[in-house]
Amino acid sequence: MRSITKEFPGVKALDGVTLDLFAGEFHALVGENGAGKSTLMKTLAGVYPYGTYGGDIVVESAVKQFKTVRDAENAGIAIIFQELSLVKELTVAENIFLGREPSKFGVINWTELYNRAGKLLKDLNLPIYPKTPVGNLGIGSQQLVEIAKALSQDARILVLDEPTAALTEAEVETLFGILRDLKARGVGMIYISHKLGEVFEMSDRITVLRDGRTVGTNDAKDLTVERVIALMVGREVGDVFPTSQHEFGETALEIKNLTAFEAETNKKLVDDVSFSVRRGEVLGISGLMGAGRSELLMAIFGAHLGKLSGEVFVEGRKVNINSPSEAIASGIGFVTEDRKRFGLILDQTILDNMTLAGLKRISGAVLTHRARESVAARKSMQNLRVKASSPLTVAGTLSGGNQQKVVLGKWLLTQPKVLFLDEPTRGIDVGAKQEIYANINALAKQGLAIVMVSSELPEVIGLSDRILVLHEGKLTGEFTRAQVTPEKVMAAATGHH
Ligand SMILES: Nc1ncnc2c1ncn2[C@@H]1O[C@H](COP(=O)(O)OP(=O)(O)OP(=O)(O)O)[C@@H](O)[C@H]1O
Ligand SMILES: [Mg+2]
To answer: pTM of this prediction?
Structure first.
């Protein structure tokens, strides 16, 4: 890619970026939220057609002028997008071969379609059934289907934009095994991630972007994590986890004997879980994917579809929550892991998104005070350092990390008593993470009770006053900040306690 420039109305997303990739190379592309990583890769993949960007895309010494994603695919370029792009209503196999279905005389050969998908999933060692509708899969499995889909195209150049954000460590290892194979077969890979450990584990070279410009491309062996962070943010970043002393108040939320069944199979997703969290306390919930962490929060929040039993008390008062709006009315806020489905309306402005849940509280009883809302949203954007020109920016045009900040901001404006955070920093760069951690601490200091699910162990350990561990729906461990070690959490998470 030679001197690529790309402008959106009011934003120069890319300003003369040059990037090269060798066959069989693993090349990481890193940078803060909004640096231009996804935009650069969408340019490569034909999402932004020839003529809408400046500079040249050169594949094997030929300048390419892609008009569509299909053109780029035909040139051997496959991309796994940061935002999942699967069709929820279609099955796994249909999604994998969407637009490329095996057919004869224009008629889709379904047997072939399912056989090929089945074989692909098996080769990749993915325990996913080809006939399952994608909408029924968790976000981690959906990510794996995206990966299978890209791999089914036999690409020579594979772009992965934050592929591991929703994967467990075991799934990440599976993926890396697959990527090492591809590398050996000469496939060049461009890998975007905020997880610098992974970046260093896999990369030959690392390119750092900042504000739409290349800061540099270096061999990974000549760099350190600290150096890359400094290049990304343009300053040295100190300790990411602010150690903070919280003072606990009254019990804010208490859960007694919560059991939640899967809607179709009646399997127990959450099995007789009881816990409580006090005002000012950060309670971390750890466990492997599928352990029931998100289901636990969803069940309390009235968003669980299957059968339920158990009791919920908010500030000592028993509440009956049958829907998310009842949960919000009871004082519970929820930053969900799947921001596209539950968190954010992509084609609306930041202002509208932020005030959706907080509308009632901010706008007062009588009038909708647009001005007051706007002030609150602006303040929240500043506090969270959302990178956007104004509250009227359309949410879907923000970078992934900035979208996540908008979701957080939206819930904070509802002034909840208890705030659930499910993977709150997924896809968020180190600098912004630090800001969000500081925000979480500040909220706890103000007396908010926080329950946080995170797959990033350092994050749970660094931030929580107390940690609960789930394994197969059951509570298998509880540790205070003083007691906890990564080993203890992993042991409980795998059922060895
Ligand atoms: N479709 C669009 N319309 C307007 N602005 C956009 C659009 N897509 C991206 N931008 C802007 O371009 C800049 C670069 O965004 P991009 O998504 O490439 O960042 P990123 O490096 O991938 O960040 P993240 O780590 O958060 O995913 C941001 O300022 C973003 O708001
Ligand atoms: Mg991005």
So the answer is: 0.70
